[in-house]
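FAQ: What does the model actually see?

It sees only this:
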Amino acid sequence: MSNETSQDKIWSHFQNIAPESFAAARPRLNYLLRRIRNLAAGRSPAVLNIGIGDGYLERQAIDLGWQIVSVDPDEKAVSRLSELGVQGMVGVAERLPLPDQSVEFVVASEVLEHLTDSQRSAAIGEIARVLKRPGWFLGTVPYNENLAEQQTVCPHCGIVFHRWGHHASFTLEDMRSQLAAQFEVQELRRTAFVQFRGRSLLGKVKSAVRLILAQAGQPIAVPSIFWLASVRKET
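And it is asked to produce this:
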């Protein structure tokens, strides 16, 4: 079984059979949507989202009147988006099926950790290629993940794999270095995407504590790396 095949099956399972597994991503996606809205300053931006998940970001973008296109390797997930009137394309981040300088924003949230080193390098180059000048790349990856802790084994074939299909773990320095070839990094930090609105006082306290721990890089808070980067003009 190839690495690519394993990834395809993992993506297909969670996006089509267990879409509820993406519910916890909504605070993170809402944050990314707010950042794009602020940068767009009242305009209707052209946005590319890499990795569909359950389609939450796309549905919100449509409601905001944005031009949204999504790229994902899973044909079923793309078809489901098309039924909602969202432009979806079957493809991968390292070979984006979009023209040069065709979008203003690219979102890759919890995507780059699924790629091998060579795939990730190609994907970052492709993201720079499809971005207009000026253009913005926003994304997240898990911070300093212990990949071994999430390994499991197939009871039928014996292959050991990461349960979410992750290939890489990142520090802030790793992420800055990988982005720097194509982008000017404007913001790069550890954080957690927590919800305060609608929670009880105790719930808000718990969210605040998790955010503080994540900013300190404590694994108990499941911290993420967030970045905001502008494409280099000479790229």
